Amino acid sequence: MTLLQTYRSETIPALSKELSIANVHMVPKVKKIIVNMGLGEALKDKKIIDKMAEQLALITGQKPKVTRATKSISAFKLRAGMPIGLKVTLRGKRMYEFLERLIKIVLPRVRDFRGINAGTFDGHGNISIGFSEMIVFPEVNFESLDKIRGLEVVIVTTATDDKQGKVLLEKMGMPFQKHTG
């Protein structure tokens, strides 16, 4: 059973009971997942954007959008409009497939992983997870990389606060750090 099917059949009833929500449509859900990667070195080497776009497309299953600088910063030799990163916004079926791979395959592959810090919520039930090495994703071809780069995964939910967001992601299988003490 996929994560989406599990969410619909088991997670929604469990969440409405635990959070005391009578209306099923008010139960928090994952709205979108944004995967982004800053590529400051693209200012020197234009090919890096293409290489990393390939890798990000493998990871997410979707073609990334090139993000561009909005301001010119002379200290960094950066002009407005120059490409400085990549971003993919996942919704629907692809989003649930990515989330399932993230929870079941990627996070267990992270070295010294003890769970996600619940303090990384933003106050509105959304969470950001940073990866210093993108090689934890099994889709990445290690030999084709010239340098190990990181990326960020932002999970946007319809939760009204961090507690709801945490409960939602816990029920979906997201491993959070256990508080000791």
From TrEMBL:
<feature type="domain" description="Large ribosomal subunit protein uL5 N-terminal">
    <location>
        <begin position="23"/>
        <end position="79"/>
    </location>
</feature>
<dbReference type="GO" id="GO:0005840">
    <property type="term" value="C:ribosome"/>
</dbReference>
<comment type="subunit">
    <text>Part of the 50S ribosomal subunit; part of the 5S rRNA/L5/L18/L25 subcomplex. Contacts the 5S rRNA and the P site tRNA. Forms a bridge to the 30S subunit in the 70S ribosome.</text>
</comment>
<dbReference type="InterPro" id="IPR020930">
    <property type="entry name" value="Ribosomal_uL5_bac-type"/>
</dbReference>
<dbReference type="Pfam" id="PF00673">
    <property type="entry name" value="Ribosomal_L5_C"/>
</dbReference>
<dbReference type="GO" id="GO:0003735">
    <property type="term" value="F:structural constituent of ribosome"/>
</dbReference>
<comment type="function">
    <text>This is 1 of the proteins that bind and probably mediate the attachment of the 5S RNA into the large ribosomal subunit, where it forms part of the central protuberance. In the 70S ribosome it contacts protein S13 of the 30S subunit (bridge B1b), connecting the 2 subunits; this bridge is implicated in subunit movement. Contacts the P site tRNA; the 5S rRNA and some of its associated proteins might help stabilize positioning of ribosome-bound tRNAs.</text>
</comment>
<dbReference type="GO" id="GO:1990904">
    <property type="term" value="C:ribonucleoprotein complex"/>
</dbReference>
<keyword id="KW-0694">RNA-binding</keyword>
<dbReference type="GO" id="GO:0019843">
    <property type="term" value="F:rRNA binding"/>
</dbReference>
<protein>
    <recommendedName>
        <fullName>Large ribosomal subunit protein uL5</fullName>
    </recommendedName>
</protein>
<keyword id="KW-0820">tRNA-binding</keyword>
<dbReference type="InterPro" id="IPR002132">
    <property type="entry name" value="Ribosomal_uL5"/>
</dbReference>
<dbReference type="GO" id="GO:0006412">
    <property type="term" value="P:translation"/>
</dbReference>
<keyword id="KW-0699">rRNA-binding</keyword>
<dbReference type="InterPro" id="IPR031310">
    <property type="entry name" value="Ribosomal_uL5_N"/>
</dbReference>
<dbReference type="InterPro" id="IPR022803">
    <property type="entry name" value="Ribosomal_uL5_dom_sf"/>
</dbReference>
<comment type="similarity">
    <text>Belongs to the universal ribosomal protein uL5 family.</text>
</comment>
<dbReference type="Pfam" id="PF00281">
    <property type="entry name" value="Ribosomal_L5"/>
</dbReference>
<keyword id="KW-0689">Ribosomal protein</keyword>
<dbReference type="InterPro" id="IPR031309">
    <property type="entry name" value="Ribosomal_uL5_C"/>
</dbReference>
<feature type="domain" description="Large ribosomal subunit protein uL5 C-terminal">
    <location>
        <begin position="83"/>
        <end position="176"/>
    </location>
</feature>
<keyword id="KW-0687">Ribonucleoprotein</keyword>
<dbReference type="GO" id="GO:0000049">
    <property type="term" value="F:tRNA binding"/>
</dbReference>
